[in-house]
Design brief:
With about 290 residues, the chain is α+β, with helices and mostly antiparallel strands. Helices cover about 35% and strands about 15% of the residues. The strands form four sheets. The protein has a four-stranded antiparallel sheet, with helices on both faces.
């Protein structure tokens, strides 16, 4: 099976875009990542301290099939509601991506492969760039010229010697709207300080939000930099994936239980439920007082 046939199968199983990257070792990305760690920008996320090359995961890997899934929602939250990041509107994307990656591996007849979707220690976004699926914006997100940055990334590492795609030119130009929009100043040129990022602060950080942070009204994650991006304003368009029905918007955070979240395979499981409720309470309190 050749590269074009693989990409066609990816579309047939439900992905929105697919490209082929080489499994060659990383150099520049490793250097930037090590400097990022040296600066302590990963905060308490110790799992970020491990990144490897594709062949460290799958011996003799020759190619990486990189797939994108659009998650831009048809319906967004009402103005003033405690906000959650749009990727968390629905069922946890990992389950959806894994299901489709397995199906793609089956449809393409892969015998030796490994799956990755934001859980393996590989450079997901760098691989997507190699595969010609976009470029890394100043907000550190992959920007696809057709879908913007509201996409999930998944990979199949394979021993197949597929012809790779060519990287896409960066089209951010001099635009810095994402940097200027960041509510906590966590973003600088191609660098994110997780210690200040509301996505980290609302989900993984054990420390409670400050009153100042709660003023931005984010309960789970943060999409401010994406909302400011001209590529999203112009090209992001609603998905048609039934698996991404906005079930999270129907949940009452004040009465949620861990068992209910696990049953729903909710992205909220990434956070401590006590923290989630505290974030919600802080944002509501702040809105009422203002």
């Amino acid at each position: 099976m050749n590269s074009e046939e693989v990409k066609q199968r990816a579309i047939e199983v439900g992905f929105d875009a697919c490209g082929i990257a080489t499994a060659e070792p990383f150099t520049d990305d490793f250097a930037r990542w090590k400097e990022w760690l040296r600066q302590g920008y990963n905060a308490t996320m110790r799992y970020m301290e491990r990144r490897v090359n594709p062949t460290d995961i799958l011996e003799n890997a020759r190619s990486v099939i990189v797939c994108l899934l659009n998650y831009y929602p048809k319906v967004t939250q009402k103005e003033g509601e405690p906000r959650i990041a749009r990727y968390a509107y629905s069922r946890d994307y990992h389950y959806v991506m894994w299901e489709r990656l397995r199906l793609l591996a089956e449809k393409t007849g892969l015998k030796e492969y490994a799956m990755a979707c934001d859980t393996m220690p590989v450079f997901d976004r760098a691989l997507a760039v190699r595969a010609g699926l976009g470029w890394i914006g100043r907000n550190n997100m992959l920007v696809n010229p057709k879908f913007g940055s509201y996409t999930f990334i998944g990979e199949l590492l394979t021993t197949l010697p597929l012809i790779p795609d060519s990287p896409t030119e960066n089209h951010c130009g001099r635009c810095r709207r994402c940097l200027d929009a960041c509510p906590t100043g966590a973003l600088t040129e191609r660098c994110l300080d997780a210690n200040r990022c509301l996505s980290f602060r609302t989900i993984e950080d054990k420390k409670p939000l400050t009153t100042e942070e709660a003023k931005h009204n984010w309960v789970f994650g943060c999409d401010t930099c994406q909302m400011a991006c001209p590529w999203n304003k112009r090209f992001a368009h609603p998905h048609d994936h039934k698996e991404f029905a906005p079930t999270s918007l129907e949940m009452d955070i004040t009465t949620l239980s861990n068992s209910a979240l696990r049953k729903a395979q909710s992205p909220f499981c990434r956070s401590n439920i006590t923290k989630l409720k505290e974030n919600n309470k802080l944002c509501i309190s702040n809105r009422q007082s203002s």
